[in-house]
Each structure stands twice: as structure tokens, then as C-alpha cells.
Amino acid sequence: MEKRELLYEGKAKRLFLTDDENLVISEFKDDLTAFNGEKKSSEAGKGALNNKISTELFKLLEANGIPTHFVKMIDDNHMLHTKVDVILIEVIVRNIATGSLTRNLGIEDGKVLPFTLVEFDYKDDDLGDPKLNDQHCLILELVEHQDELDKLRRMARQVNDVLKPYFAEKGLNLVDFKLEFGKDSSGNIILVDEISPDNCRFWDIESGEKMDKDRFRQGLGGLTVAYEQVLNRILGK
Ligand code: CDP
To answer: Are 56 and 196 in contact (CB under 8 A)?
Structure first.
């Protein structure tokens, strides 16, 4: 597979075309951003850790019948995946209240939610990723039909149903996470982007320690050590 020109550079990844029009390569960067790009840094090794963690989690989800864009990990920082049209909706799944949920609604931080909450945010940095309801999604033509929104919610819950018990067994609470979806060349909706401590919150079940990007957001330090621990628990080390 030949890596061709840069198609797009995002905050955490670069996307490259390949000699196959249906496949692209993501390069996972060491860059870190938070608060809509206002806080910036870089941590050597972070990109490779996220590539490895995402690879394992995409394989797990595929094995559980959830279609993803994952094809293979090429090397430490590169993943080969299906080219899609990204749906500009960030699907947020929450098991425990924290972050913007506690800030916006005053729900106590750490409260276990009575049921899994699925929310939609508009993937638009200029607007600051505002919350969307179904009608907003249809008015903005982010999807074609209500059915597709129902499908995003259904798939997000399926992902949670696989990942939450999987991480619990490894001593981690899956607090919340963000998913992105896209449409492949046949129009099928598949899971895309990455699944890593950059877009999931993991709390150690015993100590309550944060093992995710909140270490950077909150200036706690030890980010790559925590990400490496997440990877090691996934690999059963
Ligand atoms: O970070 P903040 O508290 O503002 O956002 P949140 O809405 O509480 O985030 C919920 C979950 O989605 C967390 O696991 C975030 O890491 C993730 N997220 C993300 O990956 N990208 C975004 N643009 C927003 C949230």
C-alpha cells in the first residue's frame, strides 16, 4: 500500500490518500489539544499508544459485529482504514456524569447515571461543537433521515455494551466517550476515527485515578504513563 498526498490534517491525526481510492492512512500525531484547541502540547509516544489502543478496540468491536473503518495497523503511528464521508455529528456516550454534563446541568461529578446517555454534538470547531437535537441534525442535513440518527444511537449503545464490561474486567470504569461515524462507498454507516484515551474517559475502579486526556486538560501530568497502562491492561500485561 503506497502512502500518497496529505488529504487533511486534524488536531491529532494526519490523513493520507493511498493508491487505492477506497483506502486512506491515518498518521497518529503526538500533539495534544484541549478546550477547542486553546490548550496545546505534545507528548512523545502518545500517537503510537493511541494507534495501538484503537487497533485493539476496533478489532474487538469488529469481532462483536460492529462495522468499523479499521483495516490494519501499518506501523507504530500509521493505521490503514476505509475512506468514508464523515458524518459531522460527535456521538457522546456517558455512563458516569463528569465534564460538560456536570458543568452544563449541575449533575454531581461522578454520579452513576440511571441509564446510558447518548448525546449529539455538532462537529464544528468554529461553533465550539454545540449540542444538537434530532431536529437540528435534520435541518443542518447532517444525515438524510431520522432512521440514520436512530442507527447512530443504536450503534453507539452497542459499542458501549461491548466496551463497558470489557474495561470493567480490566479494572477500569468507562466513564464516557466520543464516537464518530461515516458512510463508506456503498453508503453503509460505519464507526470511524479512533477509540483511545484522547476521546474516552477511564477511571481506575479501585483508586479512582484518571487514565485519559483529563490528565492533560487538568494539568495532572503522567499522561503517557496512564495511556501505556490502558494499553497494557488491554493486552493483559
Ligand atoms: O471535555 P469536555 O468536558 O468539554 O467534554 P465532554 O462533553 O464532557 O466529553 C465527553 C467525552 O467525549 C469525553 O470522553 C471526551 O474526551 C470526549 N470528547 C471528545 O473526544 N472530543 C470532543 N470534541 C468532545 C468530547
So the answer is: no
Run of H or E including 225: helix 223-234
Give the residue extent of every domain in the chain: 3-82, 85-222
Number of the ligand 1 atom closest to the C-alpha atom of 119: 7
The CA distances from residue 179 to 45, 139, 158, 225, in Å, are 23, 21, 12, 24
Specify the CATH superfamily of domain 85-222.
ATP-grasp fold, B domain (3.30.470.20)
Domain 3-82 has CATH 3.50.50.60: no
Q: How confident is the model at residue 1 (pLDDT cuts 50, 70, 90)?
A: confident
Taking the CA of residue 213 as reference, the ligand 1 atom at the shortest distance is: 16
* Model confidence, pTM: 0.97
The pLDDT tens digits for 134-175 are 999 999 999 999 999 999 999 999 999 999 999 999 999 999
pLDDT tens by residue, 102-145: 999 999 999 999 999 999 999 999 999 999 999 999 999 999 99
d(C-alpha 174, C-alpha 170), whole Å: 10
Candidates 94, 176, 203, 210: which one to mutate for ligand 1, based on the most atoms within 8 Å of Cβ? 176
**Cα 4 to ligand 1 centre (Å):** 32
